[in-house]
Design a protein that fits this description.
This protein is of the alpha+beta class. 41% of the residues lie in helices and 18% in strands. It contains 18 helices and twelve strands. It has a six-stranded mixed sheet, with helices on both faces. It has a six-stranded mixed sheet with strand order 9-10-8-11-7-12, sandwiched between helices.
């Protein structure tokens, strides 16, 4: 049977899906608990989250929160690093710790029958980590090695250069989570210990738990285990300065590169604004899926790239829109012009067919966000983190389906702002600059990556 691949498959049937109910409570020491029951399998997942991501890093210690997350499981309570790993392994538990721009997240997933013994070990990591100097020095060396490796990856250079130049050096979100090489070298062991005691406190943390356990039993167990964790007032966050982005092209030199990494975009409103769903539809049509306008233009029509992607990205206290792709050096300005062109065309409005396909895509992929224990815990965390309405999950599909073309088109003029586009081009500066001059692009500045992050 031959299939006409130019014709989209027809959809049929309604989505039948029940989102997990979220129960909330607070332990005696004020630690917040968010629980979603899931009985499919005898599994429990815990995400312990602390408001201590890289946006809290002190001015000259960029990378401190990431270093803390790397050190925190290097021994805790009565176990050293190797013993801790062995204990989790004997219980069949999956354990991880990491930092992002806003949070440090420590996670545990274990069979229900091993939950209590695993929780006792997990608790010791949270409230009694060793944070030894020897472990700190080892993890610090790892970070410095990784930073040297990342310098050679054009896509990484493009991503962090874009955020740095978009937000500006006065904003904590401008810096990569892993930190700056100069800062990492100057971070001392005591800095990590002090940062832990400033940030790891019940008032500054939350436990997100998903699994096969009764709520009353869970509450009793958590209170027993965490009652010894005493509250201290968390250290305040540094001021968040988010300036208006400016229209400018920056060239970051990567000599002899045969490709150019392109990033362009601008600052936007935060995640909890009322136009979130309209923006999701617009982005899906413009560059958020394989059949998007940008991909059909740059990949299918012109063959400039293997793929192009766009998205609205949200931190807790800021957001930005970005378009990213990689093209052969000789096609840099051609691709850039097409991206700018599509950003302009979207303001003329979307078609009914585009709207229906985007809505269908968002609705049908929504249940897949709740398939695993990890996904459910992550989505509960996002809801809490961004202060979304209590019925956000329950009304998600309804809100998507209720959108009309007029609803979406009404925000297209403000959702994409061409007069504020900050553009980063990572590649061979000499070759790219010649193209930009021929095409009469203005407001162009050349930069050296090494100087970009180590000038201060």
């Amino acid at each position: 049977m031959l299939v006409d691949r130019k014709k989209r498959p027809e959809s049929f049937g309604e989505i039948r899906f029940t989102v997990p109910e979220i129960q909330t409570t607070t332990l005696n020491n004020k630690l917040k608990i968010f629980f979603g029951e899931k009985k499919d399998l005898p599994i429990i997942r815990i995400n312990f989250v602390v408001n201590s991501g890289s946006c809290f890093d002190p001015k000259n210690s960029k990378g401190l929160s990431n270093l803390l997350s790397m050190c925190i499981d290097e021994g805790a309570g009565k176990f050293n690093s190797l013993q801790l790993a062995d204990e989790f392994e004997m219980l069949g538990a999956q354990f991880s710790a990491g930092a992002d721009s806003d949070l440090i997240v420590i996670s545990l997933q274990v069979l229900t029958e091993n939950f209590v013994p695993a929780l006792k070990i997990f608790k010791s990591v949270v409230i009694d980590p060793h944070l030894n100097e020897e472990d700190f020095n080892r993890e610090k060396r790892k970070v410095l090695v990784r930073l040297n490796q990342l310098k050679m990856e054009p896509d990484y250079v493009a991503d962090i250069s874009f955020e740095y130049l978009l937000f500006g050096q006065d904003c904590p979100y401008a810096f990569p989570v892993i930190g700056k090489e100069k800062d990492i070298q100057s971070i001392q062991h005591q800095f990590v210990r002090d940062f832990y005691y400033q940030k790891f406190t019940p008032l500054n943390s939350a436990l997100i738990i998903v699994g096969n356990i009764g709520f009353d039993s869970l509450y009793k167990t958590l209170n027993e285990e965490f009652s010894s964790w005493i509250n201290v007032q968390p250290d305040s966050q540094q001021d968040l300065l988010v300036k208006k982005s400016q229209k400018k092209i920056y060239l970051v030199n990567k000599p002899d590169s045969v490709q150019t990494e392109i990033r362009t975009g601008h600052l936007t409103t935060k995640r909890d604004q009322n136009d979130f769903f309209q923006k999701q539809i617009l982005n899906l049509i413009l560059g958020g899926q394989f059949s998007s306008r940008l991909n059909l233009n740059l990949r299918e029509k012109h063959g400039y790239t293997y793929g192009v992607h766009s998205s609205f990205n949200y931190f807790k206290d800021a957001g930005y829109y970005s378009v990213s792709t990689s093209v052969d050096t000789e096609n840099t300005t051609n691709a850039l012009k097409e991206v700018f062109s599509e950003l302009k065309k979207i303001k003329d409005g979307i078609t009914k067919e585009e709207l229906d396909f985007a809505k269908s895509s968002l609705v049908k992929r929504f249940p897949s966000n709740f398939e695993t224990y990890r996904q459910i815990a992550s989505n509960i965390g996002s809801k809490v983190f961004h202060n979304l309405p209590d019925d956000y999950f329950e009304t998600y599909i309804q809100k998507i389906n209720s959108l009309s073309s007029d609803d979406v088109n009404s925000i297209s003029q403000t959702a994409f702002r061409q007069d504020e586009l900050t553009t980063i081009l990572v590649g061979d500066t000499d070759k790219i600059l010649d193209q930009l001059r021929k095409e009469d692009f203005d407001e162009v500045e050349t930069l050296e990556y090494e100087k970009l992050f180590n000038h201060s």
